[in-house]
Amino acid sequence: MNNCGLVFLIASTIAGIYIGILTQRPVSTLCDSRKCPFCYGTDLCRDVEDERISLRYRSFSDLFYNLFSVKNVYFGEYDGVRVVLKKLGHQDELDRIERTTAVSEDIVLRSMDSAGVNSLKTCDREVGVSFLTSARRRFDLEQIWTILQVNPEPLMLHILENGSWPVPHLYGACGFVIAEQYCGLSLNHFESSPWHERAFLALQLLEAAVAFTHKHNDFRVYLTDISPDNIAVDDDFNLYFIDLENVILKQKLADNKTVHYSEYFAEEDFVYDEAQVCRGSVSDHNVYAVCRLLLSRRAPWPMMANGLLHSPPPWVTANHDELFRLVEECVDSKEKLSRFYIAERLMELLKQVNQ
Asked: Is 159 helix (H, G, I), strand (E, B) or coil?
């Protein structure tokens, strides 16, 4: 063996040992549960200690995440089921969390209103109170306060846990790590899938947009960071919204007369006015975002290039021209037709082409 071969062998051996050590380290080394009760939770700590939850990788991408802590996201298994382990923030964010010896409901509500907590927007104090009441069914007040300082995703997953919502299941937390369902590859990976598969995903996107707006008993949930990276697709082509950090919450009222219509600005990639979204009793924000960012042929970079429904088969183009016309009307309707009406018609058409 020449010198180059020997060097390569030694380097490969060292790299293999290094990878083995890092990927097999206990999950407990990530959790930092000593800082509880000011953490995300403790309901999974016993399972972490018993090593029922472990770091595992099934692809090079998983390995890369586990080695280099990309976005503080790791891949693992919980009793053999694939899970995603999230620290929800970068380490410097976790280090900067201000500790306090006492937390009250008023402190938590004021933290929800503060400029520093800018990923979860509550339209008014009433919705904040309602949200806090719901969150306390699962989380302690100290945990809610801590989560709000970093990333509200666990709280959002909690209020969406009842019903068939297209979001991951939250298994629980230990210290500064949550474990949630692994939902598959990001939507970007399906940009060139067969057209009928993409049409099925488009149908689910519209159904989700309408559901987040109308389905919850107490809240209207407006997603403000809809992108292909934040949506996953499992092996059965079920679609999930896997990043629920950026949300506007509106109290659901019986009065649906005041509809907020999202304005399209050709010169802007995507803009919205939080105050206007909150002012209406209901907003078409979710439907507009899905049409504008994921379905339209004018979807801005780096969203879904040419729209998820690009390159349709000739028979679809010939028989379902209305489908593509309505997608563009959903983005920029000159007559300002109800986007909810457009969404319903689009879903009907997509179900037809998927039969």
From this structure: helix
